[in-house]
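Dear colleague,

As promised, here are the two records you asked about, laid out in our usual form so they can be pasted straight into your sheet.

NAME FIELD: protein one
SEQUENCE, THEN STRUCTURE:
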Amino acid sequence: MSLPPGFLDELRTRTSLSQVVGRKVMWDTRKSNQGKGDMWAPCPFHQEKSASFHVDDRKGYYYCFGCHAKGDAISFVRETENVDFIEAVRILAGEAGMPMPERDPQAQAKADKRTELAEVMEMAVNHFRLQLKTAAGQPARDYLDRRKLGQKGQDRFEIGFAADAWQGLWDHLKNKGVEDDLILGCGLAKPSQKGGKPYDTFRNRIMFPIRDARGRCIAFGGRAMDPNDNAKYLNSPETELFDKSRTLYNQGPAREAAGKGQPLIVAEGYMDVIALAMAGFGAAVAPLGTAVTEHQLQMLWRISDEPIIALDGDTAGMRAAYRVIDLALPLIEAGKSLRFVLMPEGKDPDDLIRAEGARAVQALLDKALPMVLLLWKHETDGREFDSPERKAALDKTLREKIKLIRDPSIRGHYGQAIKDMRWQLFNPRRTPVARGKGGKWQPEPTARASTKSSLLVAAGDKAETHLREAVILATLLGCPELIEEFEVAIDRMECLDRRHSDLREIILRHWHSGAEALKGEIEARLGPDALEKLMSLPHVALTPSVRNAGDKDVARMAVAEELAKLEAERGVSAEVSEAAEDIVGIADEGVTWRLGQAAEARNRAVRSQQEDTTEYELGDNGARINRGEREQFEALIDKITFSKSGR
């Protein structure tokens, strides 16, 4: 019946939820605070000893942290008294002293028809079950035996058989006095296009009743016995009772099993669900011949926070998994997600259970993949990323996927997870998961061998490089968002100092988290003194980009300038190293000239904080050269024994 506006609000206002629930539970007096309407008790919907069932009397809602049952006074009466919505309202209205409104004739007529349709469906269930036991049902029984579905399973899931006859069910129901419009309204028969009697929808099929959450049979699924039939599986058409996009096979029993702690498993078909349930995985459901819909996804999350999608290990199964991911990304929220189990190639859950038993399924469930890993697998499996363009294409695709996530916190965590996996894919020489004592990273030394052996480094000239690196790292800690602009250059920084290398790795991996979270990560992994040592360096502390932390423009200029200088120094070191490798006890004037040019190039790139007071001279090519450094380098050259020789 239809209720007038405001009636339910008034009913809820007059009803004390704690009094309604208190008739069914024993309150935990230690946890409960009756004065605030904050009440706790063991859950009446599943067996437990702890008080995980919470009633907020002021808001009028209950929630169980064990089985996730939730609702208001009306839903509590419906579930505990096994009555429909209107009857629950009537019970509460009587207790609250509120007269029930007059019935709406149209709404009542519709409700009455749905009740009649459900009764006809139950008659069909009983007819199909009897047909399975007849001689005509022998091939169907043989098939079920081959699938190892014995009498216990057949009875539990009420499996039946539709005989290979055009009006077998129709005649049976008509003999019971059922009206034509009810049979047709249930989707059990179709009108003849030739003016004859309607004919049965299901013929020569094994029948699986489909029940709603309340246990009413609302539809059937039929498995064809004829291998040449156009449709191997056929569902009832949509009716007043049945909307396949809003229905899950085995929903009611699965909800009960999930409430007792079993994992909610989403399989592809009836036989998979039945096989899982008979093997002990009672919280198994399946969509009805279509991809999972948004409404079904919300139904799954009302049963379990993290359903496990178990799909066939073939191409079609993988495609189905990726469709579910695309559907779920905009809908996920904190605590509500999906995990995925991929069956062995060519097997579904039913095949796996018959071949290897329940332990094989449990082993796969224990290794269920979070959604982010399957998303990564989809975009990277079987592909090469050997060019900047391909890497950029991957980045673009993943960014578009992550943008679908509405929750900013989850979006950030997905971004970090993708970045971690991307890091491992493109930087296998520095695996970020390698850890040492205390959980701190122990990355491989990142300095190149040629840099370590260069003459300039051997001469002790890495102090200035160390300072430049320190300035860059300290600046980025104040403006971590700049990493996106300079990521490639920062990754190329050679970081001769181990501490700088560790800092660089953490910054690159966690810059998405923000400045404060990044500093906390550094302290957690490298100790509380890591940042203090970096910031206490005089050259760092006086740098404008560090003094004005957060000024993005100043920070951008500083990082760009210091990186340019490091790049210039790297080029000089490579040139000197190459020249040094050519000196094997003998050298010619060409090598001497190359060393001189390298020295001049180095002096052009290096400018210290005391640049204005440094003495300069002009080199052979007119360049201004730091005299002290020129003398130091020439003294180094003098130590090398040269002799002329041809090459």
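NAME FIELD: protein two
SEQUENCE, THEN STRUCTURE:
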Amino acid sequence: MIFNVLFGLSILVSTTLRGEGATAAYDPTDVFLINCGATSDANDTSGRTWTTEDGKLVPWNLDDLSFAATSLYQDFGVSQVPFKEARIFRSEFTYKFQVSPGWKFLRLYFYPTRYGSDFSSNSSFFSVTVDGLTLLKNFNADLTVRTLKPESNYFIKEFIVTAFKTLRLTFSPSPDSLAFVNGVGIVSIPDRFYTKGGFDDKITNVDRLPLERRRTGDTVSVVNDTDTGMFRQWFSDDDFLHGRNSKIIPVVPGVKLNYTEKTPAYVAPDDVYKTYRTMGNANNPRLNLNFNLTWLFPVDAGFNYLVRLHFCETRAEVNGPNQRIFTIFIRNQIAMLEMDVIGMSGGSRIPMYLDFSVYVGSESGPRPDLRLELHPYTEAIPKYYDAILNGVEILKLINADGIAGPNPKLVKSRGDSHVLKTTEQKRVVTITLIAVGSATGLVSIIVLLTLLVRRQIKRKKNRQNNSVAMFKVLLKHYTYAEVKKITKSFSHTIGKGGFGTVYGGNLRNGRKVAVKVLTDSTGNGEDFINEIASMSQTSHVNIVSLLGFCYEGSKRAIVYEFLENGSLDQFISRKKPLTLDVTTLYGIALGVARGLEYLHNACKTRIVHFDIKPQNILLDANLCPKVSDFGLAKLCEKRESIVSLIDIRGTIGYIAPEVFSRMYGGISYKSDVYSYGMLVLEMLGARSKEVVETTASNATSAYFPDWIYNDLENGQQTWICGDEVTTEENEIARKMVLVSLGCIQPCPMDRPPMNRVVEMIEGSLDSLEIPPKPSMHISRGFVTDQSSSLHFVMARKLEELLKPLILQIFSAKYVCDDSIEKIPNNKTDFKKNLVFFFCQ
């Protein structure tokens, strides 16, 4: 959930002209370039084709909601496309784009000027939302363009959003005002491009936590990285550089970059990595010890920011580790003490990038500077006392109130080129820093020496407090009184489960949320904080986003995003026919698989869910699935649907065999794979046949996969409901069943990991074979030596004794029972034996 929506103005730290193209550009799934208000398609200056809104995006019979207009004049340097025409909105208006699931760049293009005789942008205030999430609030484009760095007559607002099938972009004029936009761009980006961390898959926390989106770079001209496939802009860092001591390194002729799997060629344009800024002073490098290479980036206060730094050594003189080492400071905190580009990347001309996270508070006003500094590190006795930086991206994270910041404040007229001056306090600080430049260098050295002594202690402390620090910044802390106000005194119950009750509510900004009030919480407050911290670090289109928490004595609650369509179990009840078609079910199954694969492999700490079932899969307005309730099993007492014997977690019917008995193997992330297979079979109706009572001698026939295998062998598919199932849908369903049968193999080592599950579901049916028929037999693979043979024989006897009872657990008959207590009274012996089975 960390990176649900990210916003950015482009800036960058690099100094290059456009170089050789990247060797492997990203091929975006979706590319929309809409020239709003235009009457015909047209190409921009880079050759890209912008299309009209046509009748689907803007129905022709809704002129009362909006109208097209043309600018009365065009400033020098402002291109005709997409800034000549605009769409003007009289009232709330929504664009609906049909997109593929995943992350997208959403770009809004604005040229504030006068359009016709009916509209002037300087009096236009409006809000923009995407799928209900506020991106801009009471926004004025004219105020924004006057304060741009670097100066420009137009600008692009860039966001990173997730979408499933439909992306809804809504413009809402403020009272007595109109809204407008010149262009809309939507471009797919690689999955987890800004969420997995840098090339080392890490996000390093600086003081508190992550981020607005900007890029800086070329001091000569704007770089449009069309060659990478993502159409970003990278600007000069000149307007953000503090001081005049730094030096620009021009493009080194003939440089060929060596991209790697960790840093693909689409991460940034060649220009970013072929040039960089250094501290200079080549003839007297010790002068570099007297100052820091510093940038000041104005950002909105009260947000977390991700700072992505790009590095690449291209000079022939620096060709090995321990030659140029420097310290990275962000917000006056040490982000990395010893930065050795070649030492980390593995060699010269190998691009790399690192991600850092920092929280920017409001102690310095609503629009403070995010300070980035580099200083030579001398303790390792490097060859050069210098520092370098190739590129910067800064991304702002959504908080509980959204991502919209305030409009900038002007202190001078538009005719003044310096319309937004530094505050008096900052001017004093700047003068002071210049006056004591040499003293600052001396202090820096002392600080570094002191930090070396405290280094080990601080590292240990950081490891202990890492999750707590991450948690405190990522999530908003609500008081219990605020939770009551959000939920209107818990008046609207939308769900109940083994972990607590879920209530509907609204935040102050009107956003709907779901509030889960935990019951029977175990552990101390630190356990709660650490577990929620782990949960808060997730960010994926198929994972429910956490927005806040309440921890007040024994009262603990978690605030989630609200999902309009509730849980999946409402759509797959065995008491009524399926209401979702096969294609939709396939999309849900694939989304859940991707969510679990993310929890298992992409999080900083691997997360095993332990309770995958339809009730814990939530669906948004587009039926995009989101896994919920991960991590809560560690925080709550096991009760109701949670089997409470011997610390076993899960819901009967979805629990893997090894969770009941170690005879089948150890508990691991493969337990989620088993539950996922059961979930998909349940979705397809493959578990809804009535189970016939059998005796112990032929109990195997009651194990529900038996009849599925019979259908597969006979070429039948009786698990799909409905008479209008096409051949294509039959093939999709067959593929889902084959993958699921592989997931429910009793032996964990026989199940595929979730990344392989995703590949199989996305792949072709022809590449899949019918998995071995599952049985509840214990594998000899777990008998490691002869001394264990007696245990194995005893286990076999126990297995024969309990097999009929185990089969009842994994059969369809009791799949919807929420607890052992709901097993019929004539199964009393079953209950007793089950307790013995758990305790073996």
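A couple of things worth noting about protein two: The radius of gyration is 30 Å. The mean pLDDT is 75.

Best,
R.
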